[in-house]
Write a structure and sequence with these properties.
- The chain is α/β, with parallel strands linked by helices.
- The chain has 2 domains: about 10-150, HUPs (Rossmann fold, 3-Layer(aba) Sandwich), CATH 3.40.50.620; about 175-310, HUPs (Rossmann fold, 3-Layer(aba) Sandwich).
- It contains 10 helices and 10 strands.
- The chain has helices spanning about 20-35, 50, 60-85, 100-110, 130-140, 185-200, 220-225, 230-245, 265-270, 295-305; strands spanning about 10-15, 40-45, 90-100, 115-120, 145-150, 175-180, 205-210, 255-260, 275-280, 310.
- A 10-stranded mixed beta sheet has the order 3-2-1-4-5-10-9-6-7-8, sandwiched between helices.
- Helix 5 (about 130-140) links the parallel strand 4 (about 115-120) and strand 5 (about 145-150).
- The protein is elongated, with a radius of gyration of 21 Å.
- The chain starts with 11 loop residues before the first strand and ends in a 13-residue tail after the last strand.
Amino acid sequence: MAEDAQGNADRTVVGVDGSPGAREALVWALTDAVRRDVPVEVVSTFPVQLFLADPFTLDAGQLEAVRADTLSRARAQVAEVRAETRLTDVPVEVLAVAGPPAPMLLAASEDAGMLVVGSRGRGAVRSLVLGSVALSSVTHARVPVVVVHPAADGEVPDGAAAEGEAAEGEAPAGPPRVVVGLDGSAASTLALERAAREAALLGAEVHAVSAYSSASYWSDAYAVVLPPPEQLAEEVRVAAERQVAAAQLPGGVPVRVESLEGPAGHVLVAAARGARLLVLGGHGQGAVRGLLMGSVALHCVLSGPCPVMVVPEPHEGGRHATEA
């Protein structure tokens, strides 16, 4: 057990609710905690609205019974996952908290190093492609959030297949990769620096991807301001290389820069197929400024083929998002 998981910034918080998605998030969090050498705080929540709806049902004993049952179930899931994965040396603290899951997870991770959630849970809004808890986490958390997606059928992570054995539609074999999206913004530089730190932990290379588009426009007059596609690709690649050169990256981590044509979200999702991690800044150079999270990051979190980490911008009075 972690002696002081609350208030320990060097810890990972993961939400569990008994769903398959939460189980995958727990496996990812425990595996990552071994590399990072940090404790894990497992948080499970239970609603209190039912008890508050009727004064006759507001019974402290009943509420405590629900809390105890939630805690017991969460501990059982943790024990099962630890036994199956043999990750028994990771310090783990399990908490059962009364309240809605998203706000409670955000509060628990306020001073943590990372928050990990599954892409889907037991939420009531089952029609969403992304679970409401995951969506709220990536848009409001003050620490990096990793959304763990179910592994695609037949998809093999980087480095898992022998050279030349990748089947059609799978990612080609090669060294493990951490993919990061670059767009020249300060947010993407933060994401790049965090991606390099993650790559160092994973023994992976950083695959820095910058997207460009030479799409047709209704007005032919607009086309004259765009350079030819070959020139545009080269200019975007050079700008990305300059961004990499100016970033504060750990030594010894290889960085491969590539410029690819297409909408940024689609390009990054395709590039991340088979990668160990896709890292994005919470905001970028997108036109949709009204969203709490950039539209490109939102698309990647919704459609990511691998775990997706969203790195928030530093908040006033808080620590830098890449320091964890």
